[in-house]
Amino acid sequence: MEIGERLKRFREARHLSGYALANAASMTATHVKAIEDGTTKSPTAGTLTRLAEALGITVDDLIGASPIPPGENHDAGRPEHTVEVPIRAIASGGPPIDAEELEGETYQLLRHLYRDGRYVIRIVGDSMYPHFWSGDLLLVEPASRVKDGQVAIVKVNRESTVKRVFKRKKGGWILKGDNPMFPPIEVDAEEVEVVGRVLKIVDGERP
Q1: 2.10.109.10, 3.40.109.10, 3.40.50.720, 3.30.390.50: CATH of 82-203
Q2: How far is CA 169 from CA 20, 174, 189, in A?
Q3: Would you state the pLDDT for residue 69?
């Protein structure tokens, strides 16, 4: 079995998209796809190491050097490599909107990214483009404070949005998107509640 085929089987067994694996391995989705479809036939040792670590396996597993015991499932007895976390809400990438609770929807987060209380949120809207695309799943850590310029989940008068947060010199906050087509939102301090810090994109579609 070729490396690309083994990589795809391990990825799909962990319910990861190519983009999610690429993000976890600090690679591009295009590079992962090239390995899986055989366009890149001999990935570097560094690439194989990053992919193996992201999947929670060894490089020998990935290249097929580890023997499979006769009569046993190769994955039997292995620790779980993902943790099921809730997709807690849909946050707006534009003006604040009511956050819609997604009851029962979960995401298989790679175990090394998991910490107690972390959850995934789906962004909709284009105000954070090009760094965040509508539909991206973002890993969020509960937090009541963030540094200037950090991306956060904030509630403005109890409605949610995803923005970069800056303190205003005259008091209050400036909430800015990365898309220059959307004007900043200026609000008083009592109108804003920071509820989470965005850590990274864990999944999303790219052309």
Answers
A1: 2.10.109.10
A2: 39, 10, 12
A3: 38
